[in-house]
Amino acid sequence: MPSGDPTEHPTPATTERASCTTGLMPLSQITASSDPAVLYQRLRNDWGPVAPVELEPGVRGWLVMGWADIKIIASNEALYSRDARNWRDLKNGIVAQDSGLGPMMFWRANVIGHDGREHRRLRAPLDDLVSHIDPRRLRRSVESLCTDLVSGFAARGKADLISEYAASIPMLAVAGLFGIETRTGFQLLAGLMALFGSGDDSQAGNADFEAILANVMHARRSRPADDLTHALITHPNLRNDDEILQSMVVMISAGYETTLIWIAQTLRLMLTDPRLAGRVNGGRLGIDEALDEVLWRDPPMTHMPTRFALRDTELGGRSIRAGDALVLGLAAANSDPQIRTSGESAVSLGNRSYLAFSMGPHQCPSRDPARVITRAAVETALTRLPGMKLDIDPAQIPLRPSPWTRCPAVLPVVFPPPPATA
Length: 422
Known about the structure:
The chain is of the alpha+beta class.
């Protein structure tokens, strides 16, 4: 087996369809694959649970695929930091300042960019905000929003469940919590899609996204209201406008993208997996079990960026150097043969040991509101669009390009239009 240094030549198996610039498998190739599990297994066979991959042309990193190895990283801030100022390739100029990886990987002065005491100070406002969200009120609001969206296309007998439904729900739901009007919420969408795509437009998309939120924050200072923006402005742990803004960035960006993907992948699975759909429709499983199945198969964050080693160490049999970038392969860890037997049905066992929301100090603070929004969105679509069928070959469902996530770009469906009213 190779020693694991990503500067060394990979084995023949990993060079199949590998990047011509590094000889390593591009991370974006995995997320774009119709079956990432095959590529994860190939990497495991060649490298073990920690494999070198290409983050963008010419930039290397480690993909951590072992459940136990991710637990080690996520629980050890003293060795594996979220602070990208420790990234050796960035400091050495290998990663350009205008890199498409920037919005997702570069340091930000927010809860994601800090560890230890400073992280806990910045994390407390987010936890406080989530604890004050009324789940019943949120569910009613989302159900009303979803019903309105369905009413807008139901008479046609066909729709794209991404652009006409799923893409709007989490943004409008989360924006509403922050007191952001609908029109502004839609303006945030374009910036966020570019940000998570990590392409040439990601830096510009991130700038637009932050500019819109800054305007919302300043407007709320002059017109206080009972919403989450005002709660952040008045929170004693946040010391200046930059910290307030970055807290808004974290809550809205993470809450939007991950919830959109959770909704989209659950609807996709219900439309393409007769076994699961039959069990849900037959009452043997509930919507929550279907949501859990998605968190096992296609979690909202396929690859979670990023930890940076603070000193030379060893992980999963690989030699990790100080400053190396490590990506948490959440989807890969969910299929780790050390925790799941091949073919095992997690939902049948009520197993929620998936890593869909990561773990440790940096785990997602909004998993409960995200489940409320996703459950309401999926239930509304299934209830109000009976007889809904996919209007495309499942193998032809395209994915939005991203090294981090796997979100269907479109999900065209057909269904019987509702009876005309007199």
